[in-house]
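User: Hello, can you help with two protein structures?

Assistant: Certainly.
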Amino acid sequence: MKRPITFYMLLVTASIFLFFFLNLVLGSVAIPFRSVWNILWHSGDESIIWQNIIWKSRVPQALTALVAGAGLSISGLQMQTVFRNPLAGPSVLGISSGASMGVAFVVLLSGSIGGVALSKLGFMGELALTIAAIAGSLSVMALIVFVSQKVRGNVTLLIIGVMIGYVANAVIGVLKFFSVEEDIRAYVIWGLGSFARVSGDQMTLFICIMLVLIPLSFLLIKTLNLLLLGDAYARNLGLNIKRARLLVITCSGVLVAIVTAYCGPIIFLGLAVPHLCRGLFRTSDHRILMPASLLVGASLALVCNLIARMPGFEGALPVNSVTALVGAPVVVSVLFGKRRNDMNE
């Protein structure tokens, strides 16, 4: 039975608006629905405290979650297609580990070398973290791109990516051993992931970068559809397999690098959302899956951010804890549903 694709697309789009507004209304500080509406439209005379909470905290956090969720979901879809592996995710090639290693060098060595913990430097510390994460992730991505030119098989490249991740984690472990407790704590907090870390000028730059990268990834839809057919068939249709694989890996890697740099390593969204979209739309056509992954990823990220800031909690739960709790059941249910359908057929 063919799914009503337009209906589902409109439903997911509507859910984004709903969850975005709920992100503005709900939180540790209760702000009435009408007051939030007035603040957004600059009407009425609302409390300056409420205005600061909405404009300086909740709006940047919701926008960051929306854009990061969309980027990670598209990246995960690209990785699963190019490697033909349902367990491939945005971090499968060690790019997230590279970002973590870059941050580890800055955070864990700052106290040892300079005598001042990076966590005490405020905005400059956050800027240093972002630059270190981008440098680390892009360095690993450059290595992966170089290796992809030398090896033929996707499985070999996948294994090399996993090994790079292990090496990065080993280096991080050594740095932790020689670091002071305060720096280790700052690094662990960064590793938990957060949509609240991006604000002000950083948020504007992050969103502008993603608004360029995400549309560019849509140019690879035809390439991804050809890759689904298998290397031999795609080659007969005129596709340069090595070049196509390089483009997809580069696009996916840059998306992961930027999101990880600004938000920390966010797990499970990129893995779960493509499965959810395939189960929902019952198709492998990337002309449908790509926009669907963008919308579903944005909506699911907003849900995770909402759960992390549930009313009644002081502060926020780690985003990675929430994404794992939400993402794991999604993947399992989709896989069980697929198996049930295969058995019925």
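That covers the first. Now for the second protein you mentioned:
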Amino acid sequence: MPTMADVARSAGVSVATVSHVLNGTRPVLPHTRRAVLDAIDELGYTPNTLARSLVTSRTRSIGLAVSAISNPYFTEILQGVEAAALEEGYSLLIADPHDDPEHERKVVQLLHERRVDGMIVAPSADPRELVAYLGRHAVPTVFLDRVIDAHTDNAPRFDQVCAENTDPMARLVTHLAERSHRRIGLVAGLPGLSTTGERITGYRQGLAAAGLAHDERLVAPGNSESARAERATSDLLSLPAPPTALITANNAMTIGALRALRERGLSVPDDIALCCFDDFAWADLFSPRLTAIAQPSKEIGAQAVRVLLDRLAAPDRPARTVRLPCTFVHRTSCGCPERPERAADQSRKGSDS
């Protein structure tokens, strides 16, 4: 197996120069750097990552703690994190905290003990132990998708990356109100999550903008999971005056709501309109096609990596919260007719088959 000394001899440089090229510890002239890289490629040299980490105190690894990795939304975030990390030469260590505060703190500690350079974490609904641990050990961390109030419990400030939640949810409500719906139900997420709170706020703002009164009975906790959302939807449909339109606050809850509607024999949108916060790959394949808010999930993941690397490069820089815009994806489950261009596309596909 070729060694760093073999690379140095082949490139006609010192071992120290090879080390500087590999570790980025000192500027190297472009033609010298090119000679070293060519020698590495020709010899098939593989750097000893462990040895390099002992010299640089960096492992070039990132810890990622995200619950419900099987959720398509978080799967796309993971893809964005992985692609951006790989592009920068970083590997990932991944753990699932299961949205459990005690388990969350444990898996973050395990990642920290693996000497990751920094962490990207989607915090649970009660992140006090997590925040205390990260602050006590000064772990460079970016909170992902869910934000934490910087002033809660004197929490230290952390960088945060997430999507806009309030205005996009308000847009779903006003869109349904424009379709003459006056009783709009919401299947809300897990209490305590910032995403849940912000989307409920957006729901109320949308009602106010449409001149509709807020009825607490029309907000049911789906706890961000399919089974609980199915029960929540059934509860809403059992009200003396049930909603004529329904909004689900994430994609897992959309599946649960659809099950409840099917059990009742209700048709979307003829019997009840449906919109969802979170688009997903097969939303366009449902009949009717689901009107949704699409979050920039891959970009959220990639942006979290970039923010973390900025933090590693400048540990004393002020913490920042990055909000990324969402997209309103207008389809037909809200009760709107098929758009002319879409209908034309479907007609062309049929004539070609």
